[in-house]
Design brief:
The chain is α/β, with parallel strands linked by helices. The chain has a single domain (about 5-105), classed as 3-Layer(aba) Sandwich (Oxidized Rhodanese, domain 1), CATH 3.40.250. The chain is about 45% helix and about 15% strand. It is built from six helices and four strands, in the order ααβαβαβαβα. Strands 2-1-3-4 form a four-stranded parallel β-sheet, with helices on both faces.
Length: about 100
């Protein structure tokens, strides 16, 4: 496990493909204003600072989660929060990069 894996930024394309095949829901943890300026089509915007208040709603979806943000740092924090609450998730990194990976599938 490398440093990027340790902080949650090491998600490989194969990990994203695996989660996409499981009908994962993409949660973008940027602010509403950032999200409005561009996002992955079909993603849900839940800003990082409100994420803990949405845990039960996220659990009710009964789907794995791919978290994303601008660079991958906030989504790494989100992934930690979600995993601590028993939610199957990975850090998809920056939304633009994630969008490109999903488009290439």
């Amino acid at each position: 496990m490398g440093f990027l894996d340790f902080i949650g930024l090491g998600s490989k394309v194969s990990d994203i493909e695996e989660y996409a095949k499981k009908s994962a829901i993409i949660i973008d943890v940027r602010s509403h204003a950032e999200y409005a300026n561009g996002h992955v089509m079909g993603s849900k915007n839940i800003p990082l600072q409100t994420l803990t208040h949405e845990i039960e709603k996220i659990k009710s979806w009964n789907k794995p989660i791919i978290a994303c943000c601008q660079s991958g740092m906030r989504s790494a924090q989100a992934t930690t929060i979600l995993k601590k609450n028993g939610i199957d998730c990975i850090n998809g990194g920056g939304w633009s990069s994630l969008n490109n990976k999903l488009a290439a599938m």
